[in-house]
Write a structure and sequence with these properties.
Layout lengths: L7 H10 L6 H22 L9 E5 L5 E3 H14 L5 E6 L6 E2 L9 E9 L10 E9 L21 E7 L3 E6 L4 E7 L4 E6 L10 E3 L10 H11 L10 E2 L5 H11 L2 E4 L12 H14 L3 E3 L19 E4 L1 H11 L4
Parallel strand pairs: 3-5, 11-12, 11-13
Antiparallel strand pairs: 1-2, 3-4, 5-6, 6-7, 7-8, 8-9, 9-10, 13-15, 14-15
Helix pairs in contact: 1-2, 2-3, 4-7
Bound molecules: 6-O-phosphono-alpha-D-fructofuranose (P6P).
């Protein structure tokens, strides 16, 4: 890396310069996302030394037990964006309803949806964690957005990305002009451009899925996994299994090396587990921006017309060839 690497702020400003209509607010918003990443990364580095592990004893809107770090991460997003003047509404996996920020009205023209800590089952055992975010513009001028204005089809996103807290902390995002990755240098507290214009391999050799759920899956999904695991050297099989328990970390792996992640519907739960608006949609914008694909198994994720803020959706995401193959199995064509 050169002695004067490109910072997150400089990259955004240079990209903004290419769009004279762009205002500084979006640059400031992405810089604030970076601040969230620095603050959560700092907490995670010390998690075993301060009392932030374990459960809060609460149950969130998803019906899931809330970890202390879930709450800390959610609070960090809120604190960073309250009074920022940038965002008029926040929607989170951890909050039943959006938080409308009257203190940022009428200046705040963006709406931010996020999973503040993705991979919560990993918090207490030092495994990878992440945060996933989706950015919408508030088109209304009468006042703060209603909940329904945040329930948008994925093609409405103006930006999307994720933070991944692993051996290093990375921020990957897209505004629709390429996908770029930044790595946090904790020594100076700055994100530096480390992965410019990421392109996802068209084909990979890895699958990420919790095949402990195999017998809950419909037979089409079972047959997809059987195909990926079959011994057939000419077609590059079997695929290797890699599953971190953190969607953002698994997608980051696939973005760089190729392959497929899937969390399918189950016989008793056809909608699957993952949330459309703040997990599947943002990652679909990133992956498709890098040349990959994201599908429910029967339609592109970005074309799903959402019905509710916390709607779940089956997700097949990754390299173009593997996602297309998965669709063929799910639709009974193979
Ligand atoms: P399971 C984490 O809770 C998450 O939303 C994703 O990050 C992850 O890929 C998946 O769920 C893990 O779910 O059921 O395999 O533990």
């Amino acid at each position: 890396m050169s002695r004067f690497p490109i910072t997150l702020a400089r990259h955004i400003i240079e990209k903004q310069a290419a769009h004279p209509t762009a205002t500084g607010e979006f640059s400031a918003l992405m810089t604030q996302i970076g601040l969230v990443g620095k603050m959560i990364a700092r907490d995670l580095r010390r998690a075993g030394l301060i009392d932030i592990l374990g459960m809060t004893g609460e149950i969130n809107v998803q019906g899931e037990a809330v970890k202390k770090l879930d709450e800390i991460a959610n609070e960090t997003f809120i604190r960073v964006f309250q009074h920022s003047g940038l965002v008029c509404a926040l929607a989170s996996e951890e909050m039943e309803h959006p938080l409308r920020l009257s203190e940022n009205w009428p200046h705040g023209k963006y709406m931010l949806l996020f999973d503040p800590l993705d991979g919560s089952s990993n918090t207490d055992n030092n495994m990878p964690l992440g945060a996933i975010f989706s950015v919408l513009r508030h088109e209304g001028h009468e006042g703060l957005p209603s909940e329904s204005e945040l329930v948008c089809q994925g093609t409405k996103q103006v930006a999307a990305g994720y933070l991944m807290y692993g051996s290093s902390t990375v921020l990957v995002f897209t505004v629709g002009q390429g996908v770029h990755g930044f790595t946090l240098d904790p020594g100076v507290g700055e994100f530096f451009l480390s992965h410019e214009n990421i392109r996802m391999p068209a084909k990979g050799s890895v699958y990420c899925a919790n095949d402990g759920n195999y017998y809950k899956w419909p037979k089409e999904t079972q047959r997809l996994l059987d195909y990926l695991k079959a011994l057939d050297t000419p077609s590059g099989r079997p695929y290797s299994a890699r599953y971190s328990g953190c969607l953002a970390a698994d997608v980051h792996r696939l973005l760089l090396a190729g392959g497929i992640y899937f969390y399918p519907g189950e016989t008793g739960k056809p909608e699957g587990k993952l949330r459309l608006l703040y997990e599947a949609n943002p990652l679909a914008m990133v992956v498709e921006g890098a040349g990959g694909r994201a599908s429910t198994g029967v339609m592109p994720i970005l074309e799903v017309k959402p019905k509710g803020l916390h709607q779940r959706v089956p997700l097949f995401i990754g390299s173009r060839d593997e996602v297309t193959l998965a669709e063929q199995f799910i639709q009974g064509q193979r």
